Amino acid sequence: MRRVSILIATTMLLPVGAYGQLCPASCTSISSGGQEFCRCRIYRSPNSNDRIQLVTDNPTTIVDVDGDSLRDIPFGIWAYGREGTYILRHTAPGIPGTFTEVQIADTPTYGITSLGDVNGDGLVDFAVTLHSTESLILTSPGSLGPYSINAIFHDPTTYPNSITASSRGIYFSDYSGGISYYDFATSTLIRRLDTSYRYCGDGITYGDFNRDGYIDAACSNHDGSASSPFNGLVVYYFNGITFMTPEVVSTDPFQGTLAYDFDHDGNLDLLAAGSKVSVFYHDGSTWTEVILDSSFSRYGYGYNRVNIMDLDCDGDVDVVAATSCPPSGGAMLVWYENVDSTSRIWSRHPIDTSGYNCSGSHPYPYGVRVGLLNETDTVGRGDIVVVRNASNELWAYYNVTPSTPECIILGGDDDLQARETYGLKPDWEGPVKVYSSDGRLIYSGPSLPTSLKRGIYFLKRGDETRRVIVR
Fold first, then answer.
1. Contacts from 239-245 at CB under 8 Å and sequence distance 24+?
2. DSSP-based three-state secondary structure for 243
3. What does the pLDDT average to over 289-316?
């Protein structure tokens, strides 16, 4: 079962600065959009040729791998240097904290996403793409030693690219433009390749976009599939057996993509980053593009990734985006404030205009990870991690904003287990709390509510949480 972090916001009667953190002299203070960040280098690998990859289209990307209550950073090294799969293990909290590198596989890892504890030994397992014919599941031996390697895809004619995972299976794209889904329950792989257009060369995400009970997938292309005449964003609807003919959402080039219901209408929307950053709002039948940033990266440089979290703790989900090649006067790291979810109003806030590299052989940053990094409890504002300044360095942007409200993580952050349920009749009895899709508490009572309007919710009872889709 996949481990899931759910950020919610609450206003607490705390003194200003109750959870404020200080930025040490070894780090750099940055102000952006009312948020205060402390930029610190947290890791530099011993080989300057290492090309660190943080590639995933999964919002849960900073996780407690070994169960010590400190959140770790999984990453890959690919194509140059000490190729492999690594965990930057968090050994002592603080700013910038203490981290130790642990190699868990010698695979040349390009994309990496956490799966939760697949084999029940208490450690987080992973799925990776090698960008050289294979996709793998890595399962731990009960310690942070060499992980077991299980191939789920092998094709010498293509390069698996971005990767993400749900509680049901693993999704990945490849440079031939194909889309693949590996089902945990049946241990089978479903792949579709439309040879005329080769839609899926870059980012990939998932969700029930048409609310039929089946999990669909969306993918992007931004020159990722070299033989493809298509750049853009599509949705592949799934009928329980195979992927159907895709729906084209956009014909502009995009790379990183994520699905989320930003306007809370019960329909999943699509976030995507390329030369621009956009949200494509879905009303159940049509897609409407709202451009968050019309000049995010230089066209033709596809090293763009996005992630989501409630960065300012105001109760709605914001966007964080990183690019290796911003335009003149642009920024390599930006957050976009969700000002009004209903009216679809956003505000752009640059975080960092330095530390990037446009080189095709060693671009950085490539990927962006978000989540609680310094906090050992469940209170704090989300932090950001990117490759910066050199291809073998990881930098953290600790959010040290001292004011309330503060974000609270339901349960125990990445130790919180959730599973998807369709309909409003899970096998529960007793008191329950219901949260909206963006984490706001909307009901608390002795039993399940008699009805909810259609949408996505989180139901919590004791230590158990379930993601419920009501149609």
1. 239/214, 240/214, 242/190, 242/192, 243/179, 243/181, 243/190, 243/192, 243/217
2. strand
3. 87
DSSP 8-state symbol, 246:
P
Cα dihedral 438, 443, 445, 448 sign: negative
Q: What is the pLDDT of residues 65-111, one digit of tens each?
A: 998 888 899 999 998 999 999 999 999 999 999 999 999 999 999 99
Predicted pLDDT of residue 433: 81
- Express as a percent the part of the chain with pLDDT over 70: 84
Query: Which of 26, 104, 76 is CA-nearest to residue 398?
Result: 26
The pLDDT value recorded for residue 346 is 98
Residues ≥6 apart with Cβ < 8 Å to 107: 83, 84, 85, 128, 130, 134, 136, 138, 149
Separation CA 246–CA 296 (nearest Å): 27
Closest to 384 in 3D by CA, of 278, 294, 277, 312: 312
DSSP-assigned beta bridge partners for residue 154: 134
Q: What whole-number distance in Å separates Cα of residue 236 and Cα of residue 200?
A: 10
pTM of the predicted model as reported, rounded to 2 decimal places: 0.85
Task: Give CA–CA dist 376/88, Å, rounded.
Answer: 16
Tokens of 422: 């369709």
Q: Residue 178 CA to chain centroid, in angstroms?
A: 21
The tens digit of pLDDT for each residue in 152-179 reads 999 988 899 999 998 789 999 998 899 9
* Alpha helical stretches, state H, 219-277: none
Q: What is the band of 15 on the pLDDT scale with cuts at 50, 70, 90?
A: very low
pLDDT for the residue numbered 20:
55
DSSP 405: P
Q: Which residue's entry shows tokens 């699905």? A: 259
Joined tokens for residue 153: 């895809």
Per-chain mean pLDDT for the chain: 85
- The Cα 425–Cα 448 span in angstroms is 8
First to last CA, the chain: 24
> How many other C-beta atoms lie within 10 A of the C-beta of residue 124?
25
Q: What token pair was written down for 49?
A: 């040729």
- 3-class DSSP assignment, residue 75: strand
